Amino acid sequence: SINRFQVMSDAAQVNDSENHKLYDYHHNPPQEAPQRDTLYIAVDFDSVDLLDDALNTIETIGCNFLLFPLVKTQEFRDLRTNPDQEVPFVMYSDKLFNTSSWINQVVGKISTWIDLDSTDNNLRINSELAMKQEAAWSSHLSLPALLTPSPKTLQCSNMGKVLNQLLTPLSNLQFWVPIPVVSDSNPAEGKDPNDIIEDGANASWKTWDLLRTLCDHSKSLSVVLRLGLDVPSFKQFERWTAEPVKALILPVDIFLSDDHGFPTLSSPHQITIRHFLKHDVQLILTGHTDHPEGIGAYHQYLHELHRLSPAPSEQEQFEKPFHDFLQVPLQPLMDNLLSATYETFERDPIKYSQYDKAITVAFSDRFSSNEKGIVMVVGAGRGPLINCCLRACVYLQLDNIDVYAIEKNPNAVVTLKEMNIHRWNNKVKIISTDMRKWNTKIRADILISELLGSFGDNELSPECLDGAQKFLKDDSIVIPSSYTSYIAPVACQKLWMEAKGLNPNEEQKQLETAYVVKFHSFHQIAPSQKCFTFDHPSKTLDEGPQHNTRYSILKFHSVLNETIHGFSGYFDAVLYKNVTLSINPQTFSTGMFSWFPIYFPLRKPIRIPAKSTIEVHFWRNVSTQTNKVWYEWCISSPESTPIHNPNGRSYFIGL
Amino acid sequence: SINRFQVMSDAAQVNDSENHKLYDYHHNPPQEAPQRDTLYIAVDFDSVDLLDDALNTIETIGCNFLLFPLVKTQEFRDLRTNPDQEVPFVMYSDKLFNTSSWINQVVGKISTWIDLDSTDNNLRINSELAMKQEAAWSSHLSLPALLTPSPKTLQCSNMGKVLNQLLTPLSNLQFWVPIPVVSDSNPAEGKDPNDIIEDGANASWKTWDLLRTLCDHSKSLSVVLRLGLDVPSFKQFERWTAEPVKALILPVDIFLSDDHGFPTLSSPHQITIRHFLKHDVQLILTGHTDHPEGIGAYHQYLHELHRLSPAPSEQEQFEKPFHDFLQVPLQPLMDNLLSATYETFERDPIKYSQYDKAITVAFSDRFSSNEKGIVMVVGAGRGPLINCCLRACVYLQLDNIDVYAIEKNPNAVVTLKEMNIHRWNNKVKIISTDMRKWNTKIRADILISELLGSFGDNELSPECLDGAQKFLKDDSIVIPSSYTSYIAPVACQKLWMEAKGLNPNEEQKQLETAYVVKFHSFHQIAPSQKCFTFDHPSKTLDEGPQHNTRYSILKFHSVLNETIHGFSGYFDAVLYKNVTLSINPQTFSTGMFSWFPIYFPLRKPIRIPAKSTIEVHFWRNVSTQTNKVWYEWCISSPESTPIHNPNGRSYFIGL
Q1: Is B33 within a domain?
Q2: Could you tell me which chain B residue has the CA closest to the CA of A216?
Q3: What residues of B are in contact with residue A639 (Cβ under 8 Å)?
Q4: H helices present in B234-332, as ranges
Q5: What region holds the PRMT5 oligomerisation domain (chains A, B) (predicted)?
Q6: What is the pLDDT of residues B426-457, one digit of tens each?
Q7: ipTM for the assembly
Q8: From A119, which residue of chain B is nearest by alpha-carbon distance?
Q9: Does residue A7 lie within any of the structural domains?
Q10: Catalytic-residue membership of B459
Q11: What is the extent of the structural domain holding A351?
């Protein structure tokens, strides 16, 4: 049946871009999220003999789509003077397939003689005319994508110019650019920076980087990687993970034979394919085979490879729909959280088991049985930390502890009151107010909160806890006692294009906003580094609200040539003594899913040479006049960007 | 009188930017063009003692404006906790000067203790608060500009952040950033590229380059250069010519004493000051003097220096109002030229004397007396080339030459007919038609035109002459016989900001459009190189309209660190044999004013390291479907820009 077969294409998304909705963080994942682990396999019909039988063949094999030349002859056409080279004389009939097949199953192959960067003027000009002729014809047929000829290494400016002209918003054309994945005999790291530039793997990436920059990072331009007999080490081509890779081209001659004469692949090839299958990458079989079962044998092997891949873990399963899915960070201070959001939070097993540990140790340090004690949970929400406190009291046999729940969201207070009656024996004192506004003479021995965002302080934990500090005694314990945010430079072309394209009229705003996102197709260029730290109770409260401003200068080091699309942000927190939480990759609390990282984009991607120092500046700003907290950021070296988000013009957190 | 004194400020222009009109090329210069050679001198009142008398002093001296501290104490203020550091307690009274003086004569000096990039947190945070406090106060007073503290060399990111916040569209603040002009003991050229970076002159420029990039090239951020005892060679600081330099700061201790004890300056200082006076730069005297006549003596010397500067030539006089003044290139094929435009063209003495020479030599090569001959002037306009032809006939005593004037603009034909009756004895045959459409069996011996634009082919001379080629015999002479365009990379911050700011809603369009402009505040980074050449009669006409497309790859070499803002374009033409016209700087036809260069901007300025190769691509595109000719351009190395103007989306020439 035809409907099974469909090229995975961005065309629909591109058409739909104005309707693309930015979801709030912690909402349910989008219903329309694609099933990402489906295997899509295509066959490249470069042999003209097979054409008549093409569709039959792929249906028999079970392939999803095919690559198909548009023009009957693969020879040079002189379009400058020959009227018999016009569309009606050279193209395959549009009756060859039915309309639905053209639209869903056929990726057009641009004639391979086309050489847009030829130094022969006549060849170049005819190439340009032929390319435009074939693109126009494929538009007419509504093909989902076009495979271009391979660009010449670092000499593809004229190819860029022609593609850029064809990539108009109206054309709806999708181009796939084939780039060979070359293995370097000498790994890049050991060499002089000037030598790196000449490396094959590096040259491949730089060719693509040049081409997509020339085309102004068009969302309709993708790359397909052609594997060879040797697969480079993962280190050598991990940059590709950040790029819009649509497919891997697998020539049949990279396959080996197993004992039964069936096709098989070397272990490095298998690892590469499995890695890219996790990134929505389709597979394209190409080349002539003498195998008695034909191309079907290779197809069968790939299906087997896919079937035998390890099943995703529960966390991977949970996170999959959120991969590279941009969400607006929460603003729990300005907006009241929804019940469903509380629910998602409360479901995290790791986070609350860490709080259990921290609270139990703190209680045992502070309280002895029968002695009176006061504990306040500020921002109690629907009560998960109250549960932790009550569990600790039971465990330590403490009978004389007053537990306060302070919460500003009146809707959550409803739940707290319910819980108090039905679960807590009315032992909890519920205060329905903003912790910054509560006037009381009661002083807490222990103050507990969970106000942290993906970037630590970004949900204004410091400002809230400043307000609660007046409830403290001189020697009170605060949980968490400190938290630190982390920053790392990242390459993430797909994500950056996503952010840029959210609303075509607000590009600047969208590229100066922080997003919560589960990074997937990305490449972290250097290990994360500490950005801002906050300690509680604060010792600088008497310096006024500006004591929560921060300024951090970080220096990262690039190994390869890179393009930076922004920064990934993380945090870790010390709850009490050695009990911690972390979403920083180096120290990640395995199994915890409450926080995805944060993404700070750059307005323009920046090219970074190999082995350079990237100097990054981050500011946390506080204005009590406008009741805003916001971040600004920039790169100052090796080249400078504008400072992003001045005065919080595009993105701020309301106090 | 107060009105004489006024800081030359961009404030008015900034307010007015929406009304800024882009003039068509060859219109009369703008009436409101400022008198650019006026001398503006300020005195820096850094001594608080003088304050009460300040205005009196500058009126007595004859100065134009003064630099004035805003805050009574120049000592550190702790604004984080001290309410007695609020505006009402620290600022000079707004009654010190009257309103008109504040608005026209006072540049505010931000407190010099302010150190926005201090590693001492308390000093940095207080610096930020103090800077904002002083900026807010100067807004309140409507001062024309504020002098900032000097940025720390290459460590001024936080200063950038604060300035960037203050430079909102609403604030209307103008900041002047003082940068010392440092002389290098070893000239940059002889050194290793890595050493150049550490040079003083280079570090000064890089500090400014960093700061203005961080501030996103704000039009309200300018630089003032502080001269020292040693002045660097012109080569070392010619990059500053491309920057928005508002003033030179002249400390009194850089002056020498002449025989009578009066202040004087060394010859390098004089050359520097004269150079910058040609670029709207104001002078600021600073420092304490023991001279018996006080600061007035220095002021008098500067006036004398200015008075004794050589008077501008006639051509300089003519061009002055056009300096850095962006104009839309002519489109004589789509639009009919105005009478005034023809008039400006006809006034050029050099151009037509070159045509006289070329025509006379061609006539004498081709015709002998009494023999019949046919000459066609295509695009005859109001007839200047007809005059050349008739003069040549008289000079060579040729009586039997038929002169045809072919012109598509019916308004110009009216003038031609008038001329024929009153000046040419009805000897000229006037054909009122587009040369591309005239069907005739007459064949010309000599075809003459003047269809060239600033970039040679940019007024579609190639396409027009293709249409006229059918009037030729096999051995006809065409004047001009060839023309070549030239391209050079330029730094021109002021001009780029001008183009960017023409219409805030069409930034992309404005930065993908070519402008005709008399470059003034600019720095050509490398010598120009040949771009496109056209020969007539064309030998490739049978290749169809695409034979006029061109693609050129040029490689330029940078000496210093540079920021490229686009390309200057020029042309030269061979009229006949060795008779040429040129606006290419290397071969400029002195005295010719018909063509100003063309400017191709870049959407974002690109930083180029010292001693790099800049690879530039230019395309000339022709579409007969849309009747358009357009250019596209990009840089592909050392880093890549997007290709500008795809499909002529922002700028094209109509066929």
Answers
A1: no
A2: B642
A3: 213, 607
A4: 234-237, 267-277, 295-307, 314-319
A5: 482-653
A6: 999 999 999 999 999 999 999 999 999 999 99
A7: 0.71
A8: B551
A9: no
A10: yes
A11: 339-450
